[in-house]
Design a protein that fits this description.
mainly alpha; 6 helices; elongated
Length: 162
């Protein structure tokens, strides 16, 4: 049921956006409508840059503290979606994009989808870097190994040694 509603919304969205252009254009004029669309795209790009960097920082801080940055990653994805919706020409997408930039709206969406998200992975933050440092490397000299395979030259032998 929800998928059909979302599908119908996406099919009707271009028609709704055109109707929005007609209504706004008849009220404020065509040139002002184009200016408003360009201004919303510029605003979307700026907000995407500022808010996106902040979301990335919050995710890094959460990961370095040893926790899973699931909330911050989802908030970052919503910020990216909000910026893209503002960049896309149209007033309905602009309204949805502006709403997604508001933290209380993102929290509401996060609470609605939290139970459907599973974070899988290890090695976030410093724990991953520490695990990489603890990996043992075995370094061999030329005298420490010998060729076992008699079917051809060893891949470990230098070409100038033959």
């Amino acid at each position: 049921m929800t998928r059909t509603i979302v599908g119908i919304f996406f099919l009707l969205l271009p028609l709704l956006e055109i109707a929005g252009f007609v209504v706004v254009g008849s009220r404020i004029g065509a040139l002002a409508t184009v200016g408003l669309v360009i201004a919303s795209a510029v605003l979307g790009a700026l907000l995407l840059r500022i808010q996106g960097i902040g979301a990335l920082r919050r995710a890094q801080i959460q990961a370095q503290a040893g926790g899973a940055p699931d909330r911050e990653i989802v908030h970052g994805a919503m910020i990216v979606l909000a910026g893209l919706l503002l960049i896309i020409p149209g007033f309905i997408t602009d309204i949805i994009g502006l709403l997604l930039f508001l933290p209380p709206v993102r929290d509401l969406a996060w609470n609605a989808i939290r139970s459907r998200i599973v974070v899988v992975g290890t090695g976030f933050g410093m724990r991953g870097a520490q695990a990489r440092r603890e990996t043992k490397v075995i370094d061999l000299d030329e005298q420490d190994y010998r060729e076992i395979n008699d079917n051809g030259p060893s891949p470990w032998r230098r070409p100038d040694a033959e």
